[in-house]
Amino acid sequence: MTLVNCITFLRLAGFASSAFATWAPKTFTYYALHLRDLLLHDAALILNWASSIFACATFNFGPQTMCFPHTDSGNLLFGWCTITALGKFDYRRGGHLVLWDLKLVIEFPPGSTILIPSAILRHSNMRIGKGERRYSFTQYSSGGLFRWVDYGFQTAEEYWTGLTEDQLATALEEREQRWRTGVNMFSTIDELQAGSS
After folding, report:
1. Structure pTM?
2. How is domain 3-192 classified at the architecture level of CATH?
């Protein structure tokens, strides 16, 4: 049995995906449409879990997994990643999640899952005590996958060099506005409440 076939990770992956759909429905839909197009284009691709919207997953085996302050620059800029803490450690004394740009230090017990826009938020976690164990399970989607779909299933170089003059002007304008598209993907509490009624 592999970890991908383990029922525990099937459930964790599905839970994180459901949380993503709940708290970031517009971004979730963006992921779903791109993933659908990608899978329709290449039938040889296989999802890690049918219950997950994310294309990638990482299992960090520790035994004392920790990461230094970083952003996940390869991920979709306005995308989200899920982080699940696993293991056995005193979460009041260590293993905290640190969101540097927000100046937040968050207790992050084993079994907790959080979703963050990891390409733009610097994050890390704190050490745990001697003899304790901390592992993590993350899910994310590479920004390159979205570009691959948006560029008609070709590399950026192939896409840009294959455009006519008119297509190039349109593509450059779309690229200039992409940041606005990303910002508009974030939901307000009012939007989330209106969507649930």
Report:
1. 0.90
2. Sandwich (2.60)
pLDDT tens digits, residue range 140-169? 999 999 999 999 999 999 999 999 999 999
The residues spanned by each domain of the chain are: 3-192
pLDDT of 55 > 60? The answer is yes
Distance set, CA 94 to CA 8, 37, 81, 91 (Å): 24, 42, 22, 5
For residue 80, the Cα-to-chain-centroid distance in whole angstroms is 4
Tokens of 30: 């963006």
